[in-house]
Amino acid sequence: MTDPHARRLALGDQLRLLREAAGLSGKRLAERLGWQPSKVSRIENARQAVTDSDVVALAGALELSGGQAAELREELRSIRADEARWSQQLRAGHRVVQHNVAEAERAARHIRVFSLTLVPGLLQTAEYARYVFASLANLHESPRDTDDAVRARMDRQQVLYDESKQVDLLMTEAALRYPLDGAPPSVMLGQVDRLITLQGLPTVRFGIIPLGASLPAGVTHNFVMKDDTVTIELAHAEVTTQEPGDVRLYRTYLDVLWSRAAEGDDARALLARVATHAAH
Question: Where exactly does CATH 1.10.260.40 map onto the chain?
Fold first, then answer.
């Protein structure tokens, strides 16, 4: 697998050659596209990530054939797939990933999370997060920057207090019943107490799907929606989509999942049962 950055540089070179073959300067191409002139230069030098919509616009402005446009879009999809691999994202550890997620959350107005086997990151205590990051670092053989990653995750949680946002956090009871590898019962007890405390936040909708509740077919992984962007968390990578059909599908899943969830007093009663179980 070639380094994704090297592939972005090669893609930028290819776009530059196509522009020059069309007899256009970077400034003239930017004028055709209604872009700032610097954007063309940044894309060609891989200082700005080119998007699929950028490639479509460039193909139109450069009057490329359908085949040429399709090849460029396919190469970009392949690069993005490599970049989404955890082996790439975690080369410098989890802290950088947490900062990137925080930026996306700050930009979003509506954040929706579904988590199968872990408490959502925006609700985790520092001690719970510490065991999660240590376990993930072992799994992915990535740098063990646990303390920095925990601090970055705690910083992310400021978004819960931003009254301009709506944050919907849905998890399964199984996430509370599975103990974290190596964690003493006090970690889960502290986490349950945190969940009870945060239920009163006006920006947060919190729900737990009880054990025994039926789930819609096909829900086998965590996913997050930030406005109209869906991120699906797989073992080897993250998959991101903004395709309208995909977004509708995940909204449908969430509607069904929320219809099975305990909220409010029912969620508090469930959490009390979990706490009793964890204490024994």
Answer: 4-83
The residue behind tokens 């737990």 is 208
Q: Contact at 8 Å (CB) between 238 and 100? A: no
pLDDT for the residue 64: 94
Other beta carbons less than 10 A from residue 128's beta carbon: 23
Q: Does domain 4-83 have CATH number 1.10.260.40?
A: yes
Q: Which fold has domain 93-278?
A: Endonuclease; Chain A (3.30.870)
Query: Phi, psi (5° rounding) for residue 173?
Result: -60, -30
CA distances from 87 to 40, 81, 140, 186, 235 (A): 30, 12, 7, 32, 11
The predicted model scores a pTM of: 0.77
Q: Which residues contact 253 (CB under 8 A, 6 or more apart)?
A: 114, 216, 218, 219, 223
Res 187 pLDDT > 90: yes
Amino acid at 170: L
pLDDT recorded at residue 278: 82
Closest C-alpha to 112, from 245, 192, 271, 229: 229
What pLDDT shows up at residue 2?
A: 63
